[in-house]
Amino acid sequence: MMEVYLDNNATTMVDPKVFEEMKPFFCDIYGNPNSLHRFGAGTHPKMVEALNFLYEGINAADEDDIIITANATESINTVIKGVWIDKILNGDKKHIITTEVEHPAVTAACRFLQSQGVAVTYLGVNAEGTIDAQQVKDCIKDETALVSVMWANNETGKIFPIKEIGQICRDAGVLFHTDATQAIGKIPVDVQDCNVDYLSFSAHKFHGPKGIGGLYVRKSCALTPLLHGGEQMGGLRAGTVDVASMVGMGWAMKLATSTMALAYEKNHISKLRDKLESAILELPDTIVIGGTENRTPNTTLISIRGVEGESMLWDLNQKGIGASTGSACASEDLEANPVMNAFGSDSELAHTGVRFSLSRFTTEEQIDYAIEVIKNAVTRLRGISSSYAYAPASHASGL
């Protein structure tokens, strides 16, 4: 039995080259970077190098800040709650704009702000699974403090019009945050070109270690820190930095955002994804959620009518294949997939989405094996379904 990991939007393996760069900081160069002695100072060269890799990876300017955090969730909460403190509690802004398909970290933070009296507008997605920049423009008002729109969706891979939204926010004098967790390492990400004020990311999504992330903050857009304590990160985020993980994140960024790596994603990984997708779509009553245009190269979310997503994952797991029904951060939630709901899918289809997400370590041999297993699983599960036999073939045309 072959093992095939197709859940890379949940997490990725650490690139062996990244792991090699991290090794010395566990047992050899282990000093606290804030200590004055040679053991602490010995960590500084590689930390500076890693930080430079992060700046280069997203094209941050020298005068901007990149704060090292524990993960993208912390980065997101730092932005949303920081803006709440600075612009809403201590100012006259009372409104935030986001979308219905954001990562749970954004949605939950916005729900918290709503409980504190903040008005939040949730933009719905269009038939292509994204939003129009004009939707943002139409919803901005004098009280708007922040717009938060993801760069790429974690379930469908759909890419949002970040450059256009950034320009709209800049022209309106509204702060703009984007969660780029699912974009970095898959498509080019440029904070200068897109007028981004805040950008959040997590290392384990682009073959770095778990437990570390970053927050880009444009100069003049400083925030009240989420964590207070020591003076680490220039007082912007208290807590001793995990040097090994910071070095790993820097090197993972360097490898993932190189011209060669991004070209490999675009030209090779997308072909493997398309091969898998096309084979599944040969089955009746299957559809790609959001369509096949304007996506990250590695992701597809497919609805297979008559097959519960959880049941499909069980069958795949028995054959050594890892996939997902959506966000890993909500994997224990048995409610219908919120992204499927946002598309207006019916109650049956809302439970049938299966996400396959590849990485640069996925091989064609693995895809061929996955295709065979998936087709056999669909045949078995539809064969024992109490409702699929009555579903009309016309369902294959769409949601």
TrEMBL record:
Keywords: 2Fe-2S, Iron, Iron-sulfur, Metal-binding, Pyridoxal phosphate, Transferase. It comes from the Bacteria. Residues 4-369 form the Aminotransferase class V domain. It catalyses: (sulfur carrier)-H + L-cysteine = (sulfur carrier)-SH + L-alanine. Its EC number is 2.8.1.7. Signal peptide: none annotated. Its cofactor is pyridoxal 5'-phosphate. The keyword ATP-binding does not apply. The gene is iscS. GO terms for biological process: cysteine metabolic process. InterPro entries: Aminotrans_V_dom, Aminotrans_V_PyrdxlP_BS, Cys_deSase_NifS_proteobacteria, Cysteine_dSase, PyrdxlP-dep_Trfase, PyrdxlP-dep_Trfase_major, PyrdxlP-dep_Trfase_small. This is cysteine desulfurase. Belongs to the class-V pyridoxal-phosphate-dependent aminotransferase family. NifS/IscS subfamily. GO terms for molecular function: 2 iron, 2 sulfur cluster binding; cysteine desulfurase activity; metal ion binding.
